[in-house]
Amino acid sequence: MKRVLVVEDDPHNALLFKKLLERRGGFAVEVTESAPRVFEIVRAGEADLLILDVSLVNTTWEGRAINGIELCQLLKRDETIPRVPIVLATAHAMRGDAENFVESSGADGYVSKPILDHAGFVTEMQKMLDEAA
Fold it and tell me: What is the topology classification, in CATH, of domain 3-132?
């Protein structure tokens, strides 16, 4: 079973991601907003895909606030952890945002919230996993 780590600070969005990915995708899903927990899971090889909220409000790393773009940059630069596809998720989806967020963070993909096409979202996440295999 593929494992997805969702890093999301909004409980409603977190629940939606979890339900969609478990029920429609058959994935094992863990939700957190803790940066140390993210590194722990990824370093242990316990995630096959990460979905990161761009504007994490309550997340800190080494004593300072950190957003999803910064967290993605740290994960991508850390050569001691396995490479895991990272998808950014945000409600701030103006024209050009997707490309800018992906380029500046090093992420592998981008989804816009709210997720309106549930089946399409799950299919896209499966595609990311297939490409990484």
Answer: Rossmann fold (3.40.50)
